[in-house]
Amino acid sequence: MLDRASMIIVAAIATLLLIGFITGLAWSISTGFAGFLGGLPFWVIAIFVLALAVFDFWEETVKKDR
Prior knowledge:
The protein is an all-alpha fold. The chain has 2 helices and no strands. The protein has one domain (4-62).
């Protein structure tokens, strides 16, 4: 099992990679054929999912007492 500091670092890297991937995907959809209004529903969903991912990172690593 990882110690607390290692777990926070690994989870932060994973969360940042997820944020980068989802943001890049949403950017690609919005600047491509769909246009901004076509990509707007995906942006709304992406922002909600990213908020959930950041909240889960906070709950499971930073806030959790060991």
